[in-house]
Specification:
Strand order of the largest sheet: 2-8-7-3-6-4-5
Number of helices: 5
Structural class: alpha/beta
Helix content: 25-40%
Radius of gyration: 16 Å
Oligomer: single chain
Strand content: 15-25%
Number of strands: 9
Order of helices and strands: EEEHEHEHEHEEHE
């Protein structure tokens, strides 16, 4: 079943044939995963672009308003000496400040993002909560596989807008995945109305 929503707002993806990867009783109720914010491809540093930072600031209010308060915020790890891959952490900072939730760096992500997802779903501290993940885009499909969705397509190099929401029905280890446009969620005329899709058979 696909959900039909206003253009560029929400698309529910059908999942089938996925292996169980976590104990059903300990999973979070929701997982949000997204790429880090916009970067300037011509820049010779590892920081967000100004527009990427502005988007991160905006998400810090819309995520709690539309999805609830995060239980945990986790990011792709970065090199503390060179700051390589620091953009995921930078994108998470405004949400952490707004919500009072500390950011966790997942060091496993550097070599096995699938395992990162599996371990997060096994964390009893996240049971019934909201887990927010900011990641390096080339490793997002690996992370999704660890969260129970092995069919996530590669993320386009210029896609800084997509937000994925995973929800887990009671008694099921397979997530329902809905794709949203961050820009649509941040649109003042629509805001969280993007989270109320209309369905068709």
């Amino acid at each position: 079943m696909r959900s039909i929503a206003p253009p560029l707002i929400g698309v529910t993806l059908t999942l089938a044939g996925l292996a169980l990867v976590q104990p059903v009783q300990s999973r979070p109720a929701q997982v949000l995963l997204m790429r880090h914010g916009h970067k300037d491809p011509a820049a010779h540093h590892y920081n967000l672009s100004p527009s990427g930072f502005q988007r991160a600031l905006a998400l810090s209010s819309v995520i709690p308003a539309c999805f609830g308060s995060p239980t945990q915020i986790t990011t792709f790890a970065f090199d503390p000496d060179t700051s390589k891959n620091a953009r995921s952490y930078q994108t998470a900072v405004p949400l952490a400040v707004a919500s009072g939730v500390n950011i966790r760096l997942d060091r496993t992500s550097l070599h096995n993002s699938k395992r990162s997802g599996e371990r997060l779903l096994q964390d009893p501290a996240l049971k019934g909560g909201l887990l927010v993940l900011f990641w390096e885009h080339r490793h997002l499909p690996e992370l999704a596989a660890g969260l129970g969705w092995a069919a996530m397509p590669p993320i386009d190099d210029d896609d800084f807008d997509t937000l994925y929401r995973f929800t887990y029905a009671q008694g099921s280890s397979i997530p329902l995945v809905t794709r949203y446009s961050q820009a649509a969620l941040l649109d003042g005329s629509q805001r969280c109305s993007a989270l109320t899709p209309r369905f068709r058979p």
